[in-house]
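Backbone geometry:

***
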Amino acid sequence: MKNQHLIDEFKKYLQLAGMSPRTIRSYSKILKDYLNFVPDPYFATTQDLIDFALTKNSVSHRKQTQGVFKHFYRKIILKPKILTCLPKIKKQSKLPVILSEVEAHHVIAGLLNIKHRSILHLLYYGGMRISEVVNLKIFDINGKNNTVHIKNAKGAKDRVIPLPEETMDLLRAYYKKYKPKTYLFNSYIKNTKYSVKSIRKVVKKAVHLQGISKNITPHSLRHSRATHLLANGVDIKFIKQFLGHNSIKTTERYLHLTTTMLQDQITTADRFLKHKIETAA
């Protein structure tokens, strides 16, 4: 492929910069598409960069594309001036959809399959990302102190998080039944990990079984756990560490969710009080 040497150099730079394998794959794919989009990256203009970024449908993908441009033109092409007129993309501030504590409990408990229930336990009680769950290996679980070691997560970071006793008991029962060899959750193909697609289907099924109409994804369980911990008095700094966030600002969005929950409770209470007054009259 034309410009393959640039893609190879870019990958090596990202590896040296400590990027996670997942980030390297996604950034390299974006760069490959970009190099097919422009005749010559050395003679590209700022407008070429903007036109390519606009081929991405979501704000998050456009921001990711700008991240690729910054690394590529500063460190590989060595023409950073092309970036100076790029507009700053504002991130959409949509609050994530979450389950209530009761809904989360029923969604998880409603699954009879012990493997599927174990996965949901880690997504919710462990506050784990879906990629972290599929990449878990048997020896990442420490049964002596009830912790899980999450390795090479987002941002190429490791963290150790505690798990509830109930989750550990469930994982022990799952291990005895399924006897996984390498990955904690194997697929039907020997020695391969469970797929992200399969976990999404499990979550969708679990939510549907409870008659919940919210658009709940595996990441919604992580959001829900963080919100519930904050609402129950856990310090936001500990939640940041628990979730593996780089910045406290990322964690602070859960403050807005707890405020929304409070408003919902007050609104419900006010409606009940109004009905009570009207009935008494």
